[in-house]
Automatic annotation (TrEMBL), chain A:
Name of the protein: ABC transporter ATP-binding protein
Cross-referenced InterPro entries: P-loop_NTPase
Organism for this UniProt entry: Swaminathania salitolerans
From TrEMBL, chain B:
Any one Gene Ontology molecular-function term assigned to this protein's record: adenylate cyclase activity
Transmembrane segments: 21-43, 349-367
Residues of the Guanylate cyclase domain: 594-720
Pfam families in alphabetical order: dCache_1, Guanylate_cyc
Protein name: Guanylate cyclase domain-containing protein
Recorded topology in the membrane: Multi-pass membrane protein
Endpoints of the signal sequence: none
Family annotation (InterPro entries): A/G_cyclase (IPR001054), dCache_1 (IPR033479), GAF-like_dom_sf (IPR029016), Nucleotide_cyclase (IPR029787), Sensor-like_sf (IPR029151)
Keywords: Cell membrane, Membrane, Transmembrane, Transmembrane helix
Statement: the UniProt record of this protein carries the keyword Cell division: no
Length: 233, 768
């Protein structure tokens, strides 16, 4: 376990600009330490996406502050801010796939852009993750030609590439695709052991049933803000 | 997977790189700019000055040309003037009698006008009179010559300076008839004044030009008066002219024949005194040749002509009003006038370059100083960061609760030490069992950011190393593989991460060594030797307390028999298929609740190795068999690259069976480590142990095949696959619960395992 004492993500009464975010302009507070996992139930997928944008430093603030890995998004120079976003693995509700390219390039592009890791190493890592997530190998078809289940697995592979320090997962697994749950949880646990902070958004909180343990926080994202949920074992 | 980011967002120094780049490149660019500006200014100045100087030299040459034209005009002026005067004076008939006026006028002219060589007077009846200067023996004397046609002789009268006749001589005339001479005939083409082409006189080596005019005498006859002018004097005059430093002037006719000027005599001699062949030589006089060509095209004017890589300023002027067809040409190298500008430019450039060199030196000093300041600043920052890191590390250690309590893990010890010493791996070892073995309590691998533990080193294999360690001094080697005493340690331990250098600090308590701190591939162990010593002290307290605890903890009552001979090893079902025994009642097929299963998974890292694997594997398996027999393992199967040990198939927890498996695993691990290391192979294997539900049966018939499958088998394999490090034994929570009283364990952490969900796993380290 990484013993770093600084938080992976910290929202300190962060009040987003409503006009640009669509999020209720109230103060959000959250502190995610290395290895912590925040399970956030949110019925509105758009709101969850906006909140993930807020955590990624993409939404301006009226007041408060958000820091990622100890670096304040608001004061970080633009180049370093984009580099910091390279350390975030994200699964988006809308997929955010570029259909002009193959899924393989979609998966690799973030690491190709942000790191000097040799392509062969990246491909080997992507293949390894693909197999772990139940794909026979790194998918090369364009994302729109993959089945929903395979696209979801590919999204997981993309998010876990490059040992991210923060994972923002918007509905990463569908309750119907239970075969993916095992590798997903295994990778999630491994990532947390590495010190990665996780925010897992879901419309159906029942999916987290049984996923309990130290460092797991539960919230509900509503118009009223981010409300903690009492832990029930 | 190691990640190498292009931009490190946490690196606040990233923005300073541009500043540093500007600090270095700025002065250099400045110097280059200064050099370019100086060059441009110098070039511009040179060109402007040169242009001005050329214009000035052209003006100068024009003045020279006017002057020379005037001089040439003055030189040839006696001819027309004399002709005019002669037409008025010489009206008397030309007879046998000396023509007094002609002779007097001629003598006067010869005395006063130096360029005039002689005068002719001839009429249409063939009378011919001639006056020129007397030979040198009669100083300033005159010579009269008359053609006596009857005798066919020239009669010569020589008079001295006072007009007294000195002598007379006759020379053969050889039927000389003046009327057939070109000067006589030509005079009638231009009766006022006719200029002949220059013609040489070989005897006197002179080029002469004759101007003739027609006279009408009182007796009604026509006579021709001619004046001969020497061009040699004109040549001497032109040669004496100073045009720049090395300028030249020539007079040529339209056909390029040299009339006067430089090299006249050379050209005349080369042409054998034939005027028609006295042409300008393009090889020796290329400038004049080109200038004449330009004159034919453009007429009079000033031109720049390049010849022999030198620019020449040339000027051409027509002498038509003096002598039709004659052209005056002057040239002078541009450098004669502009050389000083180039010299001044060069000098200026040199001075500027000296300034540039000085500026560059200053810029270099500036950059150097800036770099030095930067380096010093960085060094200071590094030292401050180092101090901060050390303080933080010590604070973190001091702030760790239960740091000295051996029942609580303290991974910070190795982790912080690895950070401070920049070591690839830091491990804490303690001696167990009367200094017979060294047990790894914690090893932190900074490359993979993982902790591992449980490795054991035996005195039997590492006698020399143990002896070295027990001396109590720091052991240090840059090439552990080549140092006596460390070689085996390097092969067994350090090859796991391909480490070469090692720094070992013995951990001492009450004067005896009870363990060691090992730093592999550490970059700066000496800088943090005091921190290493502190960690060693802390570890000493922990180890001493642990030893005390272990001694205090009474060994659990041996509730179970140690007589292991009761269990028969089912070798034939594991290694070789055998006839099923289910029929005999020896083994009942069914679902068992407590099956202890261990999986040893060998990774095939030696595929490309040159080592002959078969004997190694053969040796390994033979030793495995001995251990399996010794520990009475219920079943041992070898399947591909994995070995599966089954302790017992039982419905109730059977601690003896699990202990036998654990004992066997510890022994097998040691055998595998040593055998593979001895064979120069990387010991790359992982072990998993679980106790749980499984199905067991002898399947098939003749021979029946004993097999166990189910949850415990799966978990055991998964634990082997996910074991934290090579050579480690990862056990499940259930196995840990059964074995914790007899063995040393280290919790590895929380993991998600299929079916089981999130669970804890442990690393089996050694026997208590």
């Amino acid at each position: 376990m990484n013993e770093d004492l600084s938080s992976v993500l910290e929202l300190r009464d962060a009040q987003p600009v409503f006009e640009e975010s669509g999020l209720t302009a109230i103060a959000y507070s959250l502190r995610l330490m290395p290895g912590d996992c925040a399970l956030i139930a949110c019925r509105d997928p758009t709101r969850a996406s906006r909140f993930a944008d807020l955590c990624s430093g993409l939404i301006p603030l009226v007041s408060g502050g958000i820091s990622c890995l100890g670096l304040d998004w608001m004061t970080l120079p633009e180049r370093r801010a984009w580099a910091l976003r390279g350390r975030i693995g994200r699964i988006m509700q809308k997929g955010a796939w570029i259909d002009l390219f193959g899924t393989d390039l979609n998966i690799l592009i973030q690491q190709l852009h942000h790191t000097k890791t040799p392509t062969d190493t990246l491909v080997a890592e992507a293949v390894r993750l693909s197999r772990l997530f139940g794909l026979p190998g790194l998918p090369t078809l364009s994302p729109d030609r993959l089945s929903d289940a395979d696209r979801a697995k590919s999204a997981c592979v993309r998010a876990f590439m490059g040992e991210p320090r923060l994972l923002l997962l918007e509905e990463p697994v569908d309750p119907d695709t239970t075969d993916m749950m095992t590798p997903f949880l295994a990778q999630l646990t491994a990532a947390r052991e590495r010190g990665c902070g996780v925010i897992w958004f879901s419309r159906t909180p029942s999916i987290w049933h049984g996923y309990v343990g130290e460092g797991i926080q539960r919230y509900r994202l509503l118009d009223e803000g981010l409300l903690p949920v009492k832990q029930v074992h | 997977m190691p990640v190498s980011e292009i931009i490190d967002p946490a690196d606040s120094d990233a923005g300073n790189r541009r500043r540093r780049f500007i600090e270095v490149v700025g002065p250099i660019l400045g110097v280059i700019l200064v050099v370019v500006v100086i060059l441009v200014v110098a070039l511009h100045s040179y060109h402007t000055t040169r242009k001005g100087v050329i214009a000035l030299s052209q003006d100068l040459l024009r003045e020279q040309q006017k002057h020379i034209t005037q001089e040439v005009s003055d030189y040839l002026a006696p001819a027309p003037a004399t002709a005019t005067v002669a037409r008025d004076l010489l009206t008397d008939p030309v007879t046998e009698e000396p023509p007094r006026i002609f002779l007097a006028y001629g003598a006067s002219m010869l005395r006063n006008v130096s360029q005039v060589e002689s005068f002719y007077l001839a009429d249409d009846r063939g009378q011919f009179w001639f006056i020129d200067r007397a030979p040198r023996d009669i100083a300033d004397g005159m010579e009269w010559v008359h053609l006596d046609r009857k005798k066919d002789v020239f009669r010569h009268w020589y008079y001295d300076k006072s007009g007294k006749l000195v002598r007379t001589t006759d020379t053969p005339a050889k039927h000389y008839d003046p009327r057939q001479r070109p000067w006589y005939e030509g005079a009638f083409d231009h009766p006022d004044l006719n200029w002949s082409d220059p013609y040489p006189t070989v005897a006197t080596q002179q080029l002469i030009v004759t101007a003739a005019s027609v006279l009408h005498t009182d007796d009604g006859h026509q006579a021709v008066f001619a004046i001969n002018i020497s061009l040699n004097r004109l040549t001497d005059f032109l040669a004496a002219m100073k045009i720049g430093r090395s300028g030249q002037a020539v007079v040529v006719d339209q056909k390029g024949r040299l009339v006067a000027g430089t090299h006249l005599l050379d050209v005349a001699k080369a042409a054998n005194w034939s005027f028609d062949r006295m042409l300008l030589n393009p090889k020796t006089q290329p400038v004049f040749t080109r200038a004449l060509a330009l004159f034919h095209i453009y007429g009079s004017g000033v031109h720049l002509i390049k010849a022999h890589d030198t620019q020449y300023v040339t000027i051409m002027a027509s002498l038509h009003h003096i002598r039709p067809g004659w052209i005056l040409m002057l040239n002078a190298p541009e450098n004669d006038f502009a050389a000083f500008t180039a010299a001044a430019g060069r000098q200026g450039l040199l001075f500027s370059l000296v300034i540039v060199v000085l500026a560059a030196l200053l810029a270099g000093f500036l950059v150097r100083q800036s770099r030095r300041s930067e380096r010093l600043q960085r060094r200071l920052d590094r030292q401050q960061a180092q101090t901060r890191a050390e303080s933080n590390a010590l604070n973190a250690l001091a702030g760790t609760t239960n740091l000295l309590d051996p029942t609580h893990d303290a991974p910070l010890l190795t982790q912080r030490l690895a950070e401070l010493a920049e070591s690839r791996r830091v491990s804490l070892w303690r001696t167990v069992g009367n200094d017979e073995r060294l047990l790894c309590e914690d090893a932190y691998d900074s490359d993979s950011d993982t902790h591992s533990a449980g490795m054991e080193l035996s005195h039997d294999d590492l006698g020399a190393f143990f002896a070295l360690l027990l001396e109590g001094d720091v052991i240090e080697s840059h090439e552990a593989g080549t140092q006596e005493g460390l070689r085996t340690f390097q092969r067994i331990v350090m090859t796991q991460i391909d480490a070469r250098s090692v720094y070992i600090q013995p951990i001492q308590a009450r004067g005896s060594v009870i363990g060691m701190v090992v730093l592999e591939d550490a970059r700066r162990p000496h800088a943090v030797s005091h921190v290493i010593a502190i960690v060693a002290e802390i570890a000493a307290i922990r180890f001493a307390a642990l030893q005390g605890l272990e001694n205090e903890t009474a060994k659990p009552q041996n509730r179970h028999t140690d007589d292991r001979s009761a269990v028969e090893t089912r070798m034939n079902e594991g290694f070789l298929a055998a006839p099923g025994e289910s029929g005999s009642g020896a083994f009942a097929a069914g679902k068992y609740a407590m099956v202890s299963i261990a999986t040893i998974l060998f990774e095939d890292t030696a595929a490309d190795s040159s080592v002959d694997l078969i004997p190694v594997v053969q040796t390994l398996v033979t030793k495995f068999q001995e251990v399996v027999r010794r520990d009475h393992i219920f079943s041992a199967q070898i399947l591909g690259n994995r070995v599966v040990l089954i302790g017992e198939c039982a419905q109730e927890p059977d601690i003896d069976a699990v202990r036998r498996v654990a004992d066997a695993l510890l022994a097998l691990r040691e055998i595998a480590l040593i055998t593979l290391s001895d064979a120069e192979l990387t010991p790359s294997f992982r072990i998993g142990l679980d106790v749980g539900r499984a199905f067991g049966a002898v399947l098939g018939d003749d021979p029946g095949l004993f097999n166990v499958w189910g949850e415990a088998a799966q978990t055991s394999e998964l634990l082997a696959v996910s074991a934290p490090d090579s050579g480690t034994i990862q056990v499940s929570e259930t196995a840990y619960a059964l074995l914790r009283d007899y063995y040393l364990f280290r919790p590895r952490g929380m993991f998600y395992l299929p079916v089981l969900g999130i669970t804890n796993t442990y690393v089996l380290a050694a026997r208590r």
